[in-house]
Structure prediction request, 122 residues.
Amino acid sequence: VQLQASGGGLVQAGDSLRLSCAASGRTFSSYAMAWFRQAPGKEREFVAAISWSGDYTYYADSMKGRFTISRDNAKNTVYLQMNSLKPEDTAVYYCAASPLRLPRSGREYNYWGQGTQVTVSS
Prediction:
């Protein structure tokens, strides 16, 4: 599975962004998908995950209520809708794919996209 993330940019605090991650390969619908992020000087951080069917989702506590992960298996794409953005959301956002059900650790994800930069100004 090859992943291509897009949709990042420079926004102001309180704005919204929607990230997309397009996947190649016919088996996209069999993978759980997730978003992680990494800010400068910090470790990679789990953001959200969605099961292969889209029926189950899981969020990091700091993202609950602001971020929404979704997927369209017909389009081989996973999305991350980010609302009420804060300066501390500034990071490179990565999408990832896992054959497991709904993992939350980056170690359980086999495939990674190249990342898309999100910068939130105050």
About this structure: The CA atoms of residues 29 and 52 lie 5 Å apart. The mean pLDDT is 95. The radius of gyration is 13 Å.
